[in-house]
């Protein structure tokens, strides 16, 4: 199956983030996952197949503009809830 979806998810906590990323990557259709984290949050690193977007909030104009700039697939998933 072709990987045609770029996903954007909010950071909540490390455990939830890990479960969400694992589930999305396991789908076989996700090309890249970006985690949107607060500008002032440190200590988060990106895993293989993932990236980080620093923004003022998940639904802020800043975040939406940055998501749009990173979206390079046919489809986009903005995932607002984690496990």
Molecular structure report:
- The protein has 83 residues and is of the alpha/beta class.
- The protein has two helices and four strands; from the N terminus they run βαββαβ.
- The protein has helices spanning 14-26, 61-70; strands at 5-10, 30-38, 50-55, 75-78.
- Strands 3-2-1-4 form a four-stranded parallel sheet, with helices on both faces.
- Strand 1 (5-10), helix 1 and strand 2 (30-38) form a beta-alpha-beta unit.
- The protein is globular.
- The model has no long low-confidence stretch (mean pLDDT 87).
Task: Provide a brief overview of the structure.
With 83 residues, this protein is α/β, with parallel strands linked by helices. The chain has helices spanning 14-26, 61-70; strands at 5-10, 30-38, 50-55, 75-78.
Whole-number radius of gyration? 12 Å
Q: Tally the helices: what do you get?
A: 2
How does the overall form come out from the CA principal axes? globular
Structural class: alpha/beta
Would you tell me the overall average pLDDT?
87
How far is it from the N-terminal to the C-terminal residue, by CA? 25 Å
Question: What is the N-to-C order of secondary-structure elements (H for helix, E for strand)?
Answer: EHEEHE
Helix content: 25-40%
Major β-sheet, in short?
4 strands, parallel
β-strand amount: 25-35%
Stretches with pLDDT under 50, minimum 5 residues: none
Question: What is the strand arrangement across the widest sheet?
Answer: 3-2-1-4
Number of strands: 4
